[in-house]
What does this fold into?
Amino acid sequence: MPVSDERLAQQALRGEPDAFDALVRRYYPRVLSLCRKLLNRREVAHDAAQEAVLRAYRKLHLYDPSRRFSAWLMTLTARVCVSHGQREGREAEPWEAIGESDGSVRDDADGPVETTEKAEVARRVADAVRSLPDLYKPVCLLRHVEGLSYPEIAEATGLPIGTVKIHLFRAKKHLRAALEDLAG
It folds into this structure.
């Protein structure tokens, strides 16, 4: 049975280096994925992901074990991305599809037509998310990709919960309009 995140965090705080390494191995792919989605630039995303992990190590003493470690780490990562985004500007690279890093959709039971259709839907969803105004994109990704709660998103972005809810509502409205032809 795998060791819980909270236990690994406590072990890391006691000075057990393998414990923090285990947390990094467990969550680095998610950290990097969130950085790529928020920053849209591969090299900046890698720098931000490394900074987020380093910051998590330095601030591990601030982690509250009553909260999910993943939520704490994604909140910290989002803050690092906001900081990097402000420093680096928003020059976008082609965006990767949400979920699969190479944009492909894998399902062994599907034939070529179904696989192609799923890939097209994934591309359209990624394009729709990419087209979100910068104001709405982080809250949308933190909620629907990372699964953070409203209070966690508010903490990550520094926005009041009411503003988070409004941004999510408007992001959903934007996505619904961009993808309305897929619903039918």
